[in-house]
Amino acid sequence: MNDLPFMLPVGLFTSDGQVHRSGVMRLATALDEIEPLGDPRVQRNEAYYPLLLLSRVITRLGPFSPVTPDVLAVLPAADFAHLQQLYTHLNTAPTLAAPTAGAPAGAESTVETECPHCGAVLELDLAGA
Q1: Residue 66 above 80 pLDDT?
Q2: What distances in angstroms separate CA 51 from CA 14, 76, 109, one per listed residue?
Q3: 20 neighbors 12 (Cβ within 8 angstroms)
Q4: Is the per-residue pLDDT at 86 higher than 90?
Q5: Where are the domains of the chain?
Q6: 2 falls in which pLDDT band (50, 70, 90)?
Q7: Distance, C-alpha 69 to centroid of its chain
Q8: Residues contacting residue 86 through CB under 8 Å, at least 6 positions apart
Q9: What is the C-alpha to C-alpha distance for residues 79 and 87, in angstroms, rounded to an integer?
Q10: Measured between alpha carbons, how far is 55 from 66 in angstroms, rounded to an integer?
Q11: The whole model's pTM is what?
């Protein structure tokens, strides 16, 4: 599944008085993460990067499709933080380590994953050794 429906905790308030909380985010590509780095807004202020990145991977937010950086810029901070966490969760998958010596091919007994809080690489022993 490449698309993930989501609900914002607060919601996007539009000028007609409606609150929009539902949206869809897709998996990011390498280009999604690289291209915003060349944008002049990011070069002037790197804090603009997550706004551009999220606008590339959020395919719908309420009635908005495509979702522009201007739409995301008016979200409550809690919603923006929620979207950043959702992006990290959706696009950070554990990477499989090479099989240990003596293990049958295709039977990985360890998995490496990154801690979402501190970034430390953790190695998990799935064989229970």
Answers
A1: yes
A2: 19, 13, 38
A3: yes
A4: yes
A5: 3-91, 95-125
A6: confident
A7: 15
A8: 4, 6, 25
A9: 12
A10: 8
A11: 0.70
